[in-house]
């Protein structure tokens, strides 16, 4: 950082007001973008969330189809065993063997019934999940379309303003380097505490800009003399006289025109 040479109060006021004009211009650019970057970010998160949900649902569908396939295999195995046990019943030597085989047949028949019940449940779940997937895909398409529109909108604004904003940020840093730390910290503190970011304002119609509180004539004369830094007792803002403000606005407008 360059060494800050001793400057007059008037020069300090002019530099502070110039810094304010640059920072206000940056604020305007960012206000034009508004909530768009956050909207785009939220939409991107939502789109990713919907894609993840569809992947999860498709994975669950695969598992259900696998379960159905397993149950169908189980049914075929059970039918094969029933056929085997039925054949064996024809060659039994006593009632005990016959009853034992009958129980095996009965068990396999129950296995088939249970497997068929499960298959029915799995198919109902599949239909339900397919409907959820359909609705989620519709939502995803709608959100992706909205995201594309918002991204295009943001890209257009960035293309128009990014270069100017970068140049203004550099200009802001240049002015900051010309201001002593105590004043710069005060400026930043005031700027951070007021809604519109105006830390340095001119007098308009006998009051500080944007305020309804009249500044006494004696104080207005002191401000116009540019001999000391004077703040508004109500808002804490640094005050400059209208003539100085007008001169600096004209000067800065010509600088802005070249950015």
Automatic annotation (TrEMBL):
Q: Which intervals hold domain C4-type zinc ribbon? A: 209-239
Pfam families the UniProt entry points to: Zn_ribbon_9 (PF02591)
Instruction: Keyword check for Coiled coil, yes or no.
Output: yes
Fetch the InterPro entries from UniProt.
Oxidative_Scav/Glycosyltrans, Zf-RING_7
Q: Which residues form a coiled coil?
A: 40-178
The organism's superkingdom is given as Bacteria
Origin species, per record, is Zhouia amylolytica
Which protein are we looking at?
Answer: C4-type zinc ribbon domain-containing protein
For this UniProt record, the keywords arranged alphabetically read as follows: Coiled coil
């Amino acid at each position: 950082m360059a060494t800050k040479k001793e400057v007059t109060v008037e020069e300090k006021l002019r530099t502070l007001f110039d810094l304010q004009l640059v920072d206000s211009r940056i604020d305007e650019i960012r206000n034009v973008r508004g909530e768009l970057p956050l909207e785009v970010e939220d939409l991107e998160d939502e789109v990713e969330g919907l894609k993840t949900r569809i992947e999860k649902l498709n994975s669950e569908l695969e598992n259900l189809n696998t379960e159905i396939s397993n149950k169908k295999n189980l049914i075929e195995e059970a039918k094969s065993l029933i056929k085997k046990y039925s054949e064996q019943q024809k060659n039994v030597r006593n009632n005990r063997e016959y009853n034992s085989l009958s129980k095996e047949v009965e068990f396999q028949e129950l296995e088939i019934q249970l497997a068929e019940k499960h298959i029915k449940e799995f198919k109902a779940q599949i239909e339900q999940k397919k409907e959820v997937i359909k609705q989620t895909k519709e939502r995803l398409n709608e959100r992706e379309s909205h995201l594309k529109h918002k991204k295009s909108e943001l890209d257009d604004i960035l293309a128009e303003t990014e270069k100017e904003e970068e140049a203004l940020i550099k200009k802001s840093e240049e002015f900051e380097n010309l201001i002593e730390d105590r004043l710069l910290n005060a400026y930043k503190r005031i700027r951070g505490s007021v809604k519109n970011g105006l830390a340095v304002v001119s007098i308009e119609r006998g009051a500080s800009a944007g305020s309804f509180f009249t500044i006494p004539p004696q104080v207005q004369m002191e401000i116009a003399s540019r001999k000391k830094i004077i703040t508004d007792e109500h808002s804490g803002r640094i005050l400059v006289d209208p003539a100085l403000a007008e001169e600096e606005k004209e000067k800065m407008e010509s600088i802005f025109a070249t950015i």
